[in-house]
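BUG: 3D viewer hangs when loading the predicted structure for this chain

Environment: internal workstation, default settings.
Expected: structure renders.
Actual: progress bar stalls at 90%.

Input used:
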Amino acid sequence: MAKITKKLIKSYLRDKLANSDAWAYHCLEVIYDNQTPLEKGLENTREENGIGFTGVDGEILSSFAKQYASRGFLSSKQMAILKKKTPKYWKQVLELCDHKLLLKCMIRDGVVDKKDAFVELL
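Structure tokens produced before the viewer hung:
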């Protein structure tokens, strides 16, 4: 098994965000929740604060977040767009996630060995 490095975590998160509906939905919710109230209202990025969606993605992903919140799903076309866009947000996901839970997911998926993960937590 691989040693836990930032490169490994980046690769794992980008893969999950690109291939898992659940991870992409969660990323959408978490990033949208971190948009400023102004950005949410305008469905656009207005502040250069390193939080939330990029300027290019602000309008479409804010729209997706609102649709997902109200309907509980996105269309297959929207989902394909979402999974194409979310991997770039891996760093924000890492900053905002529960690291112990992330480690458990990496162990479950066979990315890291349990004994290596235990050493990393010490």
